[in-house]
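TMM54 protein
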Amino acid sequence: GHLDPGGHRKALMKTGLVLLILGHLNFITGALVHGTVLRFVLTARDATSLHYGVTNSASVIAALLTISCGVCALLLSRYLGPAALRWALLALSCCSSLSCLCCALGLLVAIGLTLGNRGGVLLAPCSVANIALAPVSRECPFDPTRVYSSTLSLWAISLLLEAVEIFFSARCLLLSLGLLRL
């Protein structure tokens, strides 16, 4: 098939920009979840909080991969020449879509666990007696009434971002396959 460099350039540029934005948004969401909740929870050494930590770290790694995939697509949209860049995009978009897929699954499990234990692990740093007395006491590093809903909504946002990232990473993958004529 004949390559239409103009069309390919445009598609790569759009996809690259979208991936850059998505990656940054996901990075911020992960950082927010960590900063507001997980850094207090991760001291509890149980399987659930460990899963939260792993999932959150994974989504930060996935976000970084998505960002580099976007940067690579943008570079390639400017210089369609170098074969190394095409292979780099192939590899990055592959890794990015796979890691986003893993994260999406991890997030689903995290949301399931949280709904299952009604946020018990999230509220573990708070001593139960004080929740009724004072929403934010010295024992509780955050407002227990809000932490449950805000963590879940941040995870839902993250899940949505992962899904869109998978779509655009896959699109990048197809574009790079087209460029490599595989």
